[in-house]
Every structure is written in C-alpha cells, then in structure tokens.
Write a structure and sequence with these properties.
single chain; 321 residues; mainly beta; 3 domains; eight-stranded mixed β-sheet; five-stranded mixed β-sheet; elongated
C-alpha cells in the first residue's frame, strides 16, 4: 500500500500495489562441472558495453561503469572498472556442495549506479561431482571400481557417460540399487589419445529421472612405448581400401592370447581382433585400410594387448595417402 500525503499529514491518494514476480529473461547460460565440496573460482570477461542489447547510446562521459549483483548472497560476485579501453571481468567464488548437488543462481549486469534495470542476466549451473583421478596408457584398458550407496528406497538405475567410446561400465544396462546398501560399479577406461581430459559419469534413476550420483573422472593418459614403426603409401581418392600385412612374434615360451585395437578404427580394421599363438611362433596380422578421399599423412597406432588387456607392444604405422 502506497500513501501520498500533504504537509499536514492528510492522505490525498492511496494506492494498492500488487506485485507479480516474473521469471528472468536469460541472455546467457553457463554450466560448470567441478569437484564436490570445493570452491569454484572463475573470471568471466564482460563483452564491450556498447555491444550489449539495451545499452544506453551516446553516453556523455564515455564508457559507463558496470555493476554486477548475484541472486545468491552466499556467492562472492564482483567486478572492477580497469580504466578506459581496458576489458572488464566478473569474478565469481562459489562454494560447491556434495555430489550430485546442482547449484543454480543468476548474475545481473547493470550500467547505472542505481541498479534500476539490468542490461544482461546470466544464469549459472554448478554441478558438484565426485572426483576420481585415473592414470592410464593409450590403448590399454584400465579398470577401477566406484562405490555406490543406496538411498532409503529401492531404485532402478543406469549409468551414462560423456565418452561412451572411451569409458565402459559394468553393469551396462539397468540394474537394481538396493536401499541403504553398498555395491560397486565397475568401469573400464581406454582413451583414444594421450593427454589430459575430463570424463563425466552419471548414475540416473530411470523411473523418476533423478540424478543419484555423479563423478568427474580426471584422466591423465600417456603414450605407450613404440616398439616398431612402419611407413606405407596408399592411393588417395580411390574407392577401394588396401590390404597389408605385418608380423608379430610371441616373445614368451608358452602359448598366449592377444587382442588387437587401434586409435583410428575409422581408418584401420583388423582381419581378426584377437589371435592365439604358441611360444616363439610368428603370426601375420592382416590390416585393412579404409580409402581416403584426400592426400595427406596419418599416424595410426596398433596396440597388441594380452588376455588382461594390458599393452604388450605398440606399432606405429605412418600412412601417406
């Protein structure tokens, strides 16, 4: 209720104001994945003020100063004016919760000191994940297990990953998570290339579409030692593939089973994905190279793994199209 009064205190008008809250018009959405129970510290560069929709035109004093406010008072959000012509950043410091919590908040950007109307509203999602560090070798399967803790009710769950070609889970399909119990989720990581990357793994209740657990796998992968290198020349632009052969000698005195894999299955296929040979015997590996439509060079790795999928040897084939 708003009352307008004269000097004597007598009201001359009374307004009944009804306020109806409306959702934000979101200009940008940011989504961050971060280890649980840690602080996310981020600096986001603001675009030049004159490029923002709704920015005032023809400012008499040149560049206006920008102000930011966050919808969550427990989040540190600030920006500093760095001088004319200098870029301006928004600094965020957010406390992450336990996995699989998702924190949602808004940041409003203003160009007036009275914070009357924002010229931009940004929406943020912070996914808190359980961090798992994995050190592995390219082409070799690294196995580990994750602990699943049941909730108060029985659940039908399934695991989903951001890199299904590099991460396999067991059980693979839908399985039962018993209430208040503990069981293991077995995963196998086989990266296609060396380097560091993040792989996301979510356990989802398939009946109620709820997130039960989330993991952030920090994978550090190194290249295996190359024992042999080959160089072949193939025609470019041809419609047919090319067949080649290389030999492998079993260095052990006993009979062994080996598995073959490559980092470029789109360019190379094997006649057989596995073979078994006696001690000291020689096996001929049949290679089928896919046709290439353009000239160039590719380095293809051939991984020869043992029965436990541990890397015994790696060959490098340099293909010149």
């Amino acid at each position: 209720q708003v009352s307008f009064q004269v000097s004597a205190g007598k009201p001359i008008a009374i307004l009944q104001v009804k306020v109806e809250m409306q959702p934000h018009v979101v200009d940008q959405t940011f989504r961050f994945y971060h280890p649980e129970l840690t602080f996310l510290k981020k600096a986001i560069r603001l675009p030049p003020w004159h490029t923002l929709p709704g920015a005032p035109a023809g400012m008499p004093a040149g560049e206006p100063e920008m102000y930011v406010r966050c919808s969550d008072p427990n989040i540190i959000c600030e920006t500093k004016h760095m001088g004319p012509g200098e870029p301006q950043d928004v600094f965020l410091k957010v406390a992450g919760g336990p996995s699989p919590q998702i924190k949602k908040f808004f940041v409003a950007i203003y160009t007036d000191a009275w914070l009357a109307a924002p010229i931009q509203i940004w929406q943020f999602y912070l996914h808190s994940l359980q961090r798992v560090d994995v050190s592995c070798i390219t082409g070799q399967l690294t196995r580990l297990s994750l602990v699943l803790r049941g909730t108060q009710a029985i659940r039908k769950v399934k695991a989903y990953t951001s890199h299904p070609h590099e991460l396999k889970v067991d059980p693979e399909g839908v399985f039962i998570l018993p209430p208040n119990g503990v069981q293991d989720l077995y995963i196998g990581v086989r990266p296609q290339k060396a380097g560091s990357r993040f792989i996301y793994l979510n356990l989802v209740d398939v009946e109620y579409h709820q997130l039960v657990s989330s993991w952030l796998l920090c994978v550090c992968c190194r290249q295996p030692l190359l024992s042999k290198a080959f160089e072949i020349t193939l025609p470019a632009g041809g419609g047919k593939g090319s067949n080649k052969r290389i030999t492998y000698t079993n260095p052990y005195p006993s009979r062994r089973l080996y598995f073959l894999c490559t980092n470029r299955p789109d360019l190379l296929q094997f006649r057989e994905d596995s073979f078994e040979i006696g001690g000291g015997e020689v096996y001929t590996i049949g290679l089928r190279f896919a046709p290439s439509q353009k000239a160039g060079e590719e380095e293809i790795l051939i991984h020869i793994n043992d029965h436990e999928d541990k890397n015994e040897e790696t060959f490098c084939v340099k293909v010149i199209y």
